[in-house]
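Input/output pair, single chain:
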Amino acid sequence: MTLIRCPDGWNGECFFQKHLDKKSPPSVKPVPIEEDGETKYYVAVNSLAGLMYFVQMGVLEFHPWGAKVDNLDRPDRMIFDLDPDPSVSWPKVIETARLLRELLAMLELKAYVKTTGGKGLHVVVPLQKRNDWAEVKGFSKTIVEKLVQVQPKSYTSSASKAGRKGKIYLDYLRNAKGSNAVAAYSTRAKAGGPISVPVTWEELESGIQSDAFNLTNIFERLRSSDDPWQDF
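Output:
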């Protein structure tokens, strides 16, 4: 995974980290990956102790790959990142997530949704590790381009800032090997400590905002609600 470290807090200097330091403790699992002709050791966390180590190191955001350590070449999830231009209304973002869900359902794929803690949504599909990264990325690109074709004034698949004005950027590039997306229940390096949180489709339809959950109210949510992704 990739970490966003902010030793002086969210409003201080933050930086990315994806490789392990040599002094990392036993609670942190190094994952060897061939990169540019040499072996690099990536960050992986599989214990509370490892998680707490990074929290103590000033990590505010955790961004995992779409694959598990036991099979890095076969993604176990497909992610669609809905990133709206500031001028786009929130109901339009919700509508887009719904359309995406319906399209995936036609292909017999069950979709889940979570807030990002920012301004958008993640629509996530669990996979059975049958396909490689290129296949998953290509498939997600086809889905996105279909939506862009149907509503070209509303959506774009281009990462170019110039072409995103007034539109929702449908980002399928999260499905490339080495790419990542913020984890469910990760904090974000923003004022107020917003958190990326799984929600039900019913909650989304009720208008719940992407920054609805934060360090102040997340514990009440966890106490009072079932896990929306319990059968993920």
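Helices lie at 48-56, 90-106, 133-150, 201-205, 218-224. The longest helix spans residues 133-150.
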